Amino acid sequence: MPIHQSMPRAPGTWPLRGRLLAALAFLVLVGPAPAQIEERREEYPDGSTAKIYHVDGDGEPHGSWVEFFPSGKIRLRAQYRHGQLDGAYESYREDGKRLSERRYLKGEVQKLCRYDADSRPIHVLERSRGELVLKLKGAPDVVLFPRSLAAIRRDLTRIDGAPVLDSTRPYEEEPSLTAPFAAGRPRPDLVAEGRRRAEAYRYLCGLPHELAVDASLTNLAQHAALICCLIGELSHTPPQPPGMPAALYAIARQGAAESNLHQGRSSIRQSVDGYMDDSDDRNFRHVGHRRWILSPRMTRTGFGIVSGFCAMNVQDTSGRGLGPLSLAFPPPGYLPVDYFAGPHLAWHFSWDRSRVRIANGERPRAVLTLLDESYDIVGPIEVEQINVDDEAIGDMPALVFRPKFDAGQCRPGLRVLVEIKGIVMPKKERPIYLVELVEAQNPTTARK
Predict the structure, then answer these.
(1) What pLDDT shows up at residue 138?
(2) pTM for this prediction
(3) Other C-beta atoms within 10 Å of 293: how many?
């Protein structure tokens, strides 16, 4: 028979396995020692309390945070967890009335309510199913970010993420600027680069973004660039240069009439940025070049370049189906700063005149509000109301306006809530949207 043996155990001793299990049980029951929490106070010059708050062992806010007015009344109460807002947040006016209430989870605002001086809610946000929603009284809620930032980054990389090409020699076939004149042909890869840039802007504005480069439209655009170069200026109705054959002039004149025209940029891709900027003294009242690129019905285009004169054919209307109810530039949601020209930019809001109308006796206008990092109200932004352009450029009339920003304000983190007044939308919708600037998609090509 097998013999089972065991060593005798001295009184008060445990086998190794038993000791390990006992230690593990202690840790489970007791847990690690809590981090040291320290209370701190800050005072006003007169010695009255300005703040009482708590920090963890790393010096990060943790636990309650209270701020006071010099009068001793509470200005703000919040809860932190290891450096992040987490839980209730309440701010007050000095008369004791509520200014705002928020709730955070791991630093991200989940609910927000801003009150006016009579304690009436004027700005209510709620995060629902991961989306930040603006709650409106008597109107449908507004999702402030139609697409996630991750989706925008991914899609822009696919659409416009190729390395920028060297455009020093932009021709597949050189143009002739003396008799016998010839338009030449732009490099197909540079044309494709311009197409991708235009597609990126259309994508950001929520349009069907894919465009086809049409050889006949590129030929027209190339002739438009040629004739503008020959006359030394941009013109949609250029005169016939001396010595140019009538047949060649007819093509060039048609191309100039149908194209966006640009001078001064070194590449087709950069000319698209120029069309989308469109805020110089000559164009800012209508931003027509931009609106043509954003035409919902455009599906085909062509590009040309001759000695710094660029053209983009934008008159295609082959698209079918119902377009968007409205569109705007800068567009709703996240916008990388390399697709934003700067503080001089004229903004616009367009609408489908068959489904949206101007309210009786009113003139459309834009009301802009600056928001903070939690999407609470900072204050109004002064706006130059430039023009209500009823001409259906790109199939849609438009309101053109320009915010007046402080120096250095137009950088990542800028959050602007836009409301268009004087417009009647179907189903009680209200034209309200948020524009938030984020870091450049391609920092090497971001505008300075």
Answers:
(1) 86
(2) 0.88
(3) 26
